[in-house]
Amino acid sequence: xxxxxxxxxxxxxxxxxxxxxxxxxxxxxxxxxxxxxxxxxxxxxxxxxxxxxxxxxxxxxxxxxxxxxxxxxxxxxxxxxxxxxxxxxxxxxxxxxxxxxxxxxxxxxxxxxxxxxxxxxxxxxxxxxxxxxxxxxxxxxxxxxxxxxxxxxxxxxxxxxxxxxxxxxxxxxxxxxxxxxxxxxxxxxxxxxxxxxxxxxxxxxxxxxxxxxx
Length: 214
Prior knowledge:
Layout: E1 12-18, H1 23-36, H2 43-60, E2 65-74, E3 77-84, H3 105-112, E4 115-121, E5 124-132, H4 145-157, H5 169-193, H6 198-213
Antiparallel strand pairs: 1-2, 2-3, 3-5, 4-5
Helix pairs in contact: 1-2, 2-3, 5-6
């Protein structure tokens, strides 16, 4: 494996009680992790689908049901699961009228994701949903011009050595961070000796970075 920037995406799971007032916290947690994983473009769809799956548990299994939100990569697809202890109450796709106030949850999930399904186990069920990404590998990076240009620079700083060595996600992160810090520091030195305000340039870069995420 050879890449200029890798993003280890380890599966994680969060136990919670399925109550309406807890949905906002789950959405915020999901948004944070997707940003850390370099997949902010999936935030809206992932939050909507997670909300609908949790709402299904609240409505059809019962408020206060102990459940689990799990997030992982399924190949290059983002996978979100909601586990609950009732294998009998199955989510169903219902074709409802456009002005119906209920029964549209799984229709929204269908329209916002690439695929979804239910896995039945003796003691629980797992309702899952998956989203396509622009990744070429599960731990790769998003294919956009900003990441591509940065990857090219990091490759030069690595003097031809892969910044992402095979078989060591921890080393990958350490090497990539060190090289990135060196590149940023050198750019600030270049700006300073050419008469620019390095701190002002850093502030402007931060503003542009945050604007690109929106």
